[in-house]
Amino acid sequence: MVEKKHTRAQFATRLGVIATTVGSAVGLGNMWRFPYEAGNGGGGAFMLLYILFILLLGIPVICAEFVIGRETRSNVLGAFKQLKTSRFWQIIGYIGILSSLMILSFYSVVAGWTIEYFVQSIVGNISSDVNFHEQFVGFTTGWRALLWTVVFLLINLLVIIRGVRKGLERMSNIMMPLLFIIIIIFCINSLTMPGASQGLDFLFRPDLSKFSWNVVLSALGQAFFSLSIGLGCMLTYASYFNDKTNIVRSAAATAGLDTLVAILAGIMIFPAVFTFGMSPAEGPTLMFEVLPRIFSMMPAGAIWATLFFFMLFLASLSSTISMSEISITFLTEQGRLSRSKACIVCTAIALFFGSLCALSFGPLERLNLFNLFNNISSNVLLPIGGMLISIFVGWILDRGVLRRQLTNNESIRVPMFKLIIFCLKFVAPVCLAIILIMGLIG
Ligand code: TRP
Is the alpha carbon torsion for 434, 437, 439, 442 positive or negative? Predict the structure, then answer.
C-alpha cells in the first residue's frame, strides 16, 4: 500500500485542485440541466431547496468523499476494501461505477448536441430566420445526434488516455475562467431584455404553492448531480490530492463556484424565456431552444454562439473525464488492466448505451433510455450513494482518521468541524432517507 501511495499521480498546485474539481462539477448540469429542472420545479421554490441542499447536504458529502479518497488514495471500490469495514459498504463502489457509466452515456448525448450547435454556429445557421424549435427537433430525432455522441466519446477517450496530471490540469486551468467571463457577458445581455424582471421574479421568488415532494426530490437530485457527488467521483479525484490540500476549503470553493455558475445560467436563460413568450417548463430542450435565439439577436451573434458552444463542449468534456475516471481507476486498480485498456473498455460501454440514449428522441423513442438514465441516476442512485457515504463517514469511519484528514494532521484549523460532523451523522442520512422515500412514493 505504501508503495502505491508514491506511484500514484498527485495534483501539482492548489489551483490545479480547485480547477479540476470545479471542472468536474461545472458542466451541462449547470447550463443545461439546472435551468430546465428549475423551470419544471416552478422557479423560486426549486431554487430555494436547491441552495439549501447544497449547503446542508452537498458540502458535507463532498468533504466526506474527499476524506475517504485522500485517506485511501484508491478507487471507489478499493477505498472501502482498504478501510477493512464490512463488505456491505463496498456497495457504494458498485453503485458509483454503475451510475457513473449511466451518466456518462446520456451526458455524452447532450454533449453531442453542443457539438452540433457549435458546428451550426460556424456555418451560420444560428440566425434570426431559423425556427429553433424545428431545428432542434429535426436534429435530435435524426441520426446525426448519434454521430455526435460517438464523436464526443472518442474525443473523451483521447483525453482520458493521456492520464491525470497533464490532461486534466492544463485544460481546466485555462478553460474555467474563460467560460465564466463569457457567461457573465451573456447574463448582462439577458438583463437588458424586456422580460428580465419577469424572469428574475420566476427564478428568485419562491412560489409556495409549487412545493411538492417531487420538486424536493428533483432539487436534491440536481444538487448532487451538479456537485458530482454521490457516486465517488469526488472521492476518486481526492485520491490525487496532496497532503496539503485543505479539504473543507476546497469543498466550499467547489460548491460555491458551481452554484454560482448554475445561478448565472438561470439569469442568462429565464429573462429570455419570458421575453420570447416561451414556457419555462419546456423540459430538457429548454437551453437548446432559448440560447440560439438569444445569440441570433445579438450583434455578431454567430461569433458569440460559436464561442459559447465551444466552451460548453469543453466544460462537458472536463465533466465526462471525471466520470470516466471512476471506472478507469476501478479497472486499473481492481482489474489490473493497463490504463489504455481500461479507457477503451469504459468508452466501449458508454458507446453502446450512449448510442441507445442518442436515439431516444427518434427511432428508439418508446424505450427512451435517455430519460430513464437521467432520472434514475440523479433522483435515486446519487441520493442513495450520498446517504451511504455520509453514514459511513459519520458513523463507521474512525473519528481519528476523519479529524486527521479534515485538519491535515492538526496543521490547519477547521472552523465548522462540529457542524460538518453533525450534518454527516444526522442531517444528511435523515433528510436523504425522508426525501427519497417521499419523493419516490409521492
Ligand atoms: N457535475 C457535472 C455537471 O454538472 C456532471 C458530473 C460529472 C457528475 N461527474 C459527475 C454528476 C459525477 C454526477 C456524478 O455537469
Answer: negative
Q: Could you tell me if residue 207 is left (phi over 0), alpha (psi between -120 and 50 degrees) or otherwise beta? A: beta
Go through the domains of the chain in sequence order and give each one's CATH number: 14-441 (1.10.4160)
d(CA 45, CA 202): 9
Q: Which of 225, 227, 234, 258 to mutate to test the pocket of ligand 1 (most atoms within 8 A of CB)?
A: 225
The CA-based dihedral angle spanning residues 4, 5, 6, 9, taken in that order and rounded to the nearest 10 degrees? 100
332-348 as b/e, with b when 16 or more CB fall inside 10 Å? bbbeebebeebbbebbe
**Residue tagged 432517507 (cell numbers):** 433
Which residue in 42, 56, 91, 88 sits closest to 431, CA to CA? 56
List the pLDDT tens digit at each of the 442 positions of the chain: 333 444 677 887 777 788 889 999 999 999 999 999 999 999 999 999 999 999 999 999 999 999 999 999 999 999 999 998 889 999 999 999 999 999 999 999 999 999 999 999 999 888 877 888 999 999 999 899 999 999 999 999 988 888 655 666 677 777 778 889 999 999 999 999 999 999 999 999 998 888 899 999 999 999 999 999 999 999 999 999 999 999 999 999 999 999 999 999 999 999 999 999 999 999 999 999 999 999 999 999 999 999 999 999 999 999 999 999 999 999 999 999 999 999 999 999 999 999 999 999 988 888 899 999 999 999 999 999 999 999 999 999 999 999 999 999 999 998 889 999 999 999 999 999 999 999 888 7
- Residue of minimum CA distance from atom 14 in ligand 1: 228
- What is the C-alpha to C-alpha distance for residues 146 and 351, in angstroms, rounded to an integer? 10
How many residues belong to the chain?
442
C-alpha cell at 249: 476549503
Sign of CA dihedral 176, 249, 46, 216: positive
Q: Contact at 8 Å (CB) between 281 and 41?
A: no
What is the CA(278)–ligand 1 centre distance, in A?
A: 28
Closest residue by Cα to atom 12, ligand 1, is 228
* d(CA 365, ligand 1 centre) in Å: 25
Q: Coil, strand, or helix at residue 347?
A: helix
| Nearest ligand 1 atom to alpha carbon 377 | 13
Q: From the CA of 320, give the closest atom in ligand 1.
A: 7
Name every protein residue with a CB atom under 6 angstroms from any ligand 1 atom: 24-25, 27-30, 103, 225-226, 228, 231, 233, 319, 322-323
